[in-house]
Write a structure and sequence with these properties.
70 strands, elongated
């Protein structure tokens, strides 16, 4: 007879056709809840891989009641082939499977007996499910709950279910079964335990963990070997696995079946409380899960470990003296504010350790125990196994913190062991501690609050409450108190008064905890230096000075406040070496000037580099080397602190309270690159992180733009790839992206920025991908005093004249002294002092005599130059520095001197006997000045002697003028080159003196004069009444056409027209001269025989130039020699004609 639940045949109508497949030999399957389910058909006929099986509660057929909790995903219930097994070619057997642990498809059906229903070619094909077998589902029951207490063994035996045995296991998981074990369970077993039905131990006499001693725990498989559970209290998952289905039950995924919850009762771990020795200590607001009044707390150095006691101590509880020495304290729920007010904070959340407590200061462990769960009722030190955190005991006389802040900056200090709410008040002295171990807020204290306050502290000295990480600050206001040490008084923000936690009045701050140093320079210091010399700021005084501190020299009136770039920009304008940033490479030397003044001294310099800057007053701004980084750093260069290397997050942590570099201008970019260059030369930024440095720029996804960390905009949106050229435009933010950068697409894929150190170019980058150089902008500078630089001011404009000794008066400057020097330099090819060439032609190799008063300078000799502007450079002698003897010693620019004078090497030509006009030219840009022009007897003005004052041969002597100079007649013989000597009148302000009356004033030679005319002192001889050729007439530049006459007059300039002069012989004029170009003949003046009927004797030869010769007194004015006329025998008696000077008989 058929079994209950079988499916009888039904009538399908006429002419039905049946294809029969047969299965027989019922083969029951066994499946485990929480795993996969497999059922076998071990024999049959015509079976195929497309057949399907279903699980029903009671019956198959058209009215099948399908079982709930059976996986129904793809592939569930279909025939599967055994992995690695032989294929069934005859269709005689089948295996079906439901579920897959890896895909979190588990058998969730309740335990019991189920019917296996079979369909040929799948149950969705219209086939009627046929009952072929029975499947049994076994395993643990759902929704089970277990309770344990932290610090004790955890009993999870008694797990309910069908067919559970000692090999089955459970694991504890925090959130969801199969996803990960709960850490903190005993290491020997982890979160997995066996023996979940009955307690299992090798000792047959052990029936639970209460019966098991420590030596027997190795033989216990239940309850994690009866070891104590020190896990954070909470609600956890109980997850089941059985090895009987083929699983190893070792991986988290094996424990995917949730069978209920584990309530682990007790406090949370890693809680932190503090109290002050000598006062009431209430540990309140303990957090946990399932806390109860009556829980116990014992303070130990190490939980479970008794404290060492003096010899003879035998008590079972041995705790910390002054806290819980011989007994623990009991938990309660209501806490007091010491004024009779109570609040309910939750069961077992508070413990009173003492009123007062008297332990030594230090850190101790808070060890917890629950008497109802403890085998000994928490009566032994070993029962307190749960370490719920640290108790810090502050003893007022013990803390001696030393913290530092910098003058002129906001003050931020750190106490890593402090908690939120702690507060510091900087006072003259801390008030007396409260009496009776209580704070009575209305109790008066000695004096008034004003007696304790220190003037000048932000927020009257009381800090803001501590923030996360123990950060204490006084807000954004900078501190400008004198440097030195100040007393810190502390108020604990919690632990002493958990309800009020007040830190408001001076008497709340009765615990002295140490001192805070205000570091920085002593203000108002003044130093001296000299232009052109190396600068040394010696004995610089300050408190907290360090090797590597910087001293920025900025123009007086510039502020020391602001970002580093602005200070460096101002410092660069000061034109001191190294961009105006002086450094110290020595350890500060301690100095005690008095009992109340203690500071350090240090020297700042820029090495041997001289100060190429004019005299003046400059401000000094101190830049601390290490401030702002809170870590050991490398060197400080150009306003930046080089602090190793790391990720982007590490860079921002190291540079906390300062910022990373943000080059917002071309100058800022150059300053950063220069700092990097100096750092690399000093060995910073080495591999493996020397490729680049982090910048303080980022992509702001919310704003959809690139920006600096101070929110200054870099772009209005995503950027196209750069060409590699920097953007320097008034209408666009400065940028220096490398070619092809930024590359992030989208930008948030590479949202951070760095600068490549070799090129200075910017790149975008992922956050955690690289380790790059960490460079922090140095902290804000501190004003401290002034530096007076002795030396001349710049921009002087002097005027002098050529040919007179160079004398400059009225040099202005700072602390100018006798003995200073000036150098005149050429402005071509270099105009910069130190490299310009000395203008030697101005006298004394261009170097002045030592000044007599520091304001007046005189040069040897005189300026033998044409009009031109020359540079002036200054120098002061100093032993070991410079002797001011070479052009490169003169480094400080003073200004310019304009030497006024005509152009040199001019050439002019005049004719003897004619008027002479000279038009002097002047260099471009040089205005002409009045003076005299003389013609020296020879070719040199300097060697002319006194005659130059008369300009011999030039009627009227030196000619006056500025550009045009005239003489009525030239009475000089022909000459190829006579020096033109110029002397300027010297009105007030042009230096020198005199009115051109001495030969020394006519030493400035501006050119040469060629005089075209005959030579003087020539001698000729002719016979009376015979044709007479006076030849050759010698001279310079003679041409045919001139004329001569001979005369008995006393001089050629006599009154020949009137026939005066004491002679009855008329003047005889020759015909115009011929043959001046003939080499063998020469210039010839011919007298025909008709005019030679004159008495014998010596006659004067007077010369007249071209085209002007009439027989007048003014024509034949130049006597060129003598003509001797003979008649017959030579006369024996002289004619009595006066002889000209130098005349000699032929």
């Amino acid at each position: 007879a058929p079994e209950v639940g079988n499916t009888p045949l039904v009538d399908f109508g006429e002419e039905d056709v049946f294809i029969l497949k047969f299965t027989w030999m019922r083969a029951a399957g066994r499946c485990f809840r929480g795993g996969t389910c497999e059922a076998d058909i071990t024999s049959g006929m015509g079976l195929s891989g497309s057949d399907q099986a279903l699980l029903a509660n009671t019956r198959c057929g058209l009215a099948m009641d399908r079982a709930e909790g059976v996986p129904e995903g793809p592939g569930d219930g279909f025939a599967v082939q055994e992995s690695g097994g032989p294929a069934d070619q005859l269709g005689l057997r089948q295996k079906f499977r439901w579920g897959n642990k890896a895909e979190d498809r588990l058998l969730q059906a309740a335990d019991g007996r189920y019917v296996l229903c079979w369909c040929a070619e799948g149950c969705d094909s219209g086939a009627v499910p046929q009952e072929v077998s029975v499947v049994f589902i076994i395993g643990p029951a759902p929704d089970q709950t277990k309770y344990c207490v932290v610090g004790e063994a955890c009993d999870v035996t008694g797990i309910m279910g069908r067919d559970i045995n000692a090999w089955d296991r459970i694991a504890v998981m925090p959130d969801k079964c199969g996803k990960g074990f709960q850490p903190g369970f005993p290491e020997a077993t982890g979160a997995i335990t066996e023996g979940i039905v009955l307690f299992k131990s090798r000792q047959p006499t052990d029936y639970s963990c209460a019966d098991t001693v420590a030596e027997e725990m190795e033989g216990v498989t239940s309850n994690w070997g009866c070891r104590r559970i020190n896990v954070d209290a909470g609600l956890f998952k109980l997850c089941f696995c059985t090895p009987r289905e083929g699983s190893a039950c070792e991986q988290a995924v094996d424990f995917s079946f949730d069978i209920g919850q584990l309530h682990l009762l007790g406090p949370f771990k890693d809680q932190w409380r503090r109290c002050a020795s000598g006062f009431r200590c209430e540990i309140a607001e303990i957090e946990g899960f399932g806390l109860e009044n009556g829980d116990k707390l014992l303070i130990l150095d190490t939980c479970r470990t008794p404290q060492k006691l003096p010899a003879g101590g035998f008590m079972s509880i041995r705790g910390i003296p002054g806290l819980t020495l011989v007994e623990p304290v009991t938990g309660y729920q209501k806490i007091s504010d010491f004024l009779g007010n109570f609040q309910d904070r939750g069961f077992g959340s508070a413990f009173m350790l003492g009123n007062p407590i008297t332990p030594e200061g230090g850190n101790y462990r808070m060890c917890w125990c629950r008497p109802s769960a403890s085998a000994r009722g928490c009566t032994n030190t070993d029962d307190f196994a749960m370490d719920m955190g640290m108790l810090s005991i502050i003893k007022p006389e013990q803390p001696q913190y030393l913290r530092q802040c910098f003058q002129g900056q906001k003050c931020v200090i750190h106490f890593p062991d402090w908690m939120d709410g702690d507060t510091v008040w900087v006072l003259k002295s801390c008030p007396d501690m409260p009496r009776d171990g209580r704070f009575r807020y209305d109790k008066p204290y000695e004096g008034t609050e004003l007696d304790y306050l220190i003037d000048g502290w932000p927020q009257i000295g009381r800090s803001l409450p501590a923030e996360a990480g123990g950060q204490i600050s006084w807000g954004d206001e900078a501190i400008y108190l004198p440097v030195g040490r100040y007393l810190m008084c502390w108020c604990m923000g919690n632990g002493l008064w958990p309800m009020h936690k007040r830190c408001e009045k001076v008497h709340d701050f009765w615990i002295p905890i140490g001192e805070i140093e205000i570091l920085g320079p002593v203000p108002g210091q003044h130093f001296e230096a000299t232009s052109g010399h190396p600068v040394l700021v010696s004995d610089f005084k300050g408190y907290g000075l360090e090797q590597g501190d910087g001293l920025a020299v900025v123009p007086y009136g510039e502020s020391c406040t602001g970002i580093v770039e602005s200070i460096l920009n101002a410092s660069a304008r000061a034109k001191f070496p190294d961009g105006g940033l002086l450094t110290t490479n020595m350890e500060p030397v301690f100095s005690r000037e008095s009992d109340s003044i203690m500071d350090y001294k240090v020297n700042f310099s820029a090495g041997s580099a001289p100060v190429v800057q004019n005299g003046g007053l400059f401000a000094l701004c101190v830049q601390p080397a290490q401030s702002g980084t809170h870590t050991p750093t490398g060197g400080v260069y150009g306003g930046y602190v080089f602090a190793g290397c790391g990720s982007e997050a590490e860079a921002r942590r190291v540079c906390a309270h300062r910022i990373l570099p943000m080059p917002k201008s071309a100058f800022g970019q150059r300053a950063l690159e220069d700092a990097v260059r100096k750092a690399r030369e000093a060995g910073e930024l080495s591999e493996p992180c020397g490729h680049g440095i982090w910048l303080g720029g980022r992509w702001d996804k919310a704003q959809n733009r690139w920006e600096w960390e101070d929110s200054v905009v870099l772009s209005d949106g995503p950027l196209e790839a750069s060409s590699g050229e920097p953007v320097v435009s008034p209408s666009r933010p400065f940028s220096n992206w490398a070619a092809g950068q930024p590359t992030g697409r989208p930008p948030e894929a590479e949202p951070w920025m760095y600068m490549e150190v070799d090129t200075g170019k910017w790149h975008d980058v992922q956050a955690e991908r690289y380790s790059l150089g960490i460079v922090c902008r140095q902290s804000e500078a501190l004003p401290m005093g002034t530096l007076r630089l002795s030396g001349p001011l710049a921009g002087h404009r002097f005027v002098a004249v050529a040919g007179r000794p160079l004398r400059l008066e009225g040099l202005r400057g700072v602390e100018l002294r006798a003995g200073d020097f000036l150098l005149a330099t050429s402005l071509r090819p270099h105009s910069r002092c130190g490299v310009a060439f000395a203008a030697r032609a101005l006298g004394g190799e261009g170097i002045s005599y030592p000044s007599m008063d520091g304001t007046t300078f005189v040069w040897p000799g005189f300026p033998a130059v044409e009009g031109e502007t020359f540079g002036l450079c200054w120098c002061r002698m100093a032993e070991g520095v410079t002797d001011c003897r070479h052009a490169q010693d003169f480094l400080v620019p003073v200004g310019e001197v304009l030497i006024q004078g005509p152009s040199l090497d001019q050439r002019f030509s005049c004719r003897s006997g004619d008027p002479c006009l000279v038009n002097l030219t002047w260099p471009s840009g040089v205005f002409s000045v009045d003076g005299l022009l003389s013609v020296a007897p020879g070719s040199s003005c300097r060697d002319a002697g006194p005659g130059v004052v008369d300009a011999p041969g030039f009627d009227g002597g030196p000619a006056a003028g500025s550009e045009v100079f005239e003489w009525p007649v030239v009475l000089a013989e022909g000459a190829e080159a006579r020096a033109l000597c110029w002397c300027a009148f010297s009105p007030t302000g042009l230096g020198g003196g005199g009115n051109c009356t001495t030969s020394e004033e006519f030493v400035h030679q501006v050119g040469l004069m060629e005089i075209k005319g005959p030579s003087l002192g020539q001698r000729f001889k002719c016979e009376a009444e015979q044709p007479c050729d006076v030849a050759p007439i010698r001279g310079v530049g003679l041409e045919n056409g001139f004329s001569v006459l001979f005369s008995k007059q006393s001089s050629c300039v006599g009154d020949t027209a009137s026939g005066g002069g004491g002679s009855d012989v008329e003047d005889v004029v020759a015909s115009s001269a011929l043959h001046c170009g003939a080499y063998f003949k020469g210039c010839t003046a011919a007298f025909p025989w008709q005019v030679m009927n004159v008495p014998a004797g010596d006659y004067r030869l007077c010369w007249c130039g071209l085209g002007t010769c009439n027989v007048t007194a003014g024509d034949y004015v130049l006597e060129i020699g003598r003509l001797r006329v003979t008649r017959g025998p030579r006369p024996k008696v002289a004619l009595g004609i006066a002889k000209s000077p130098g005349f000699a008989e032929r």
